[in-house]
Specification:
eleven-stranded mixed beta sheet; mainly beta; globular; Immunoglobulin-like; 13% helix
């Protein structure tokens, strides 16, 4: 009887593990556009009524010429701007980068909370954890690039972090 229970327990544990693998979050998409490789596109869930949200991602320029992220739009927002957050003398400020963000050749730029990021304005509905938000980003040379932001939890610091809800290792 004890052996039978142990075997049943192992079978159930294996079944649960297998089921967990089937519903595990997919790895973030990798989008290639010209010489650019865009990965780890994500955003945070927003409370009901919120009209703005941040967008974060990593852009690698594998080419020999600089490109520039200008802005974009999406299904849930008509306007996405490139912004920079800085802290000086204990005061945090945020400003739009009117000329966009340069991605130098051979370099990687990470848009993340507290630094460079995208601002989505006039949201048509809240972003909910687990959703994918389709957007089009516009680059000076690579042109219009379609991708989706994975929506993580409200306090997420990025994919793979404890509150991020995803493991992208």
């Amino acid at each position: 009887m004890r052996l039978e229970r142990l075997t049943t327990a192992r079978i159930l544990a294996c079944a649960a593990l297998f089921a967990g693998l089937l519903v595990a979050p997919a790895r973030a998409q990798e989008v290639k556009a010209g010489d650019l490789v865009i990965t780890q596109a994500w955003s945070r869930a927003t409370p009901g009524g919120a009209k703005v949200a941040g967008g974060y991602l990593t852009i690698e320029n594998k080419g020999s010429v600089a490109d520039r992220l200008i802005g974009g739009w999406g299904d849930l927002t008509d306007r996405i701007e490139v912004h920079q957050m800085t802290t000086s003398n204990g005061v945090m400020t945020m400003r739009a980068l009117d000329k966009g963000l340069v991605i130098e050749p051979g370099k990687t730029v990470r848009l993340a909370p507290g630094g460079y990021h995208l601002m989505m304005f006039d949201l048509k509905s809240p972003l909910k954890q687990g959703d994918k938000v389709p957007v089009v980003l516009e680059f000076e040379k690579a042109g219009k690039v379609k991708l989706s932001f994975d929506v993580l939890g409200v306090g997420a610091q990025g994919p793979g972090t404890p509150s991020g809800g995803m493991d992208l290792k």
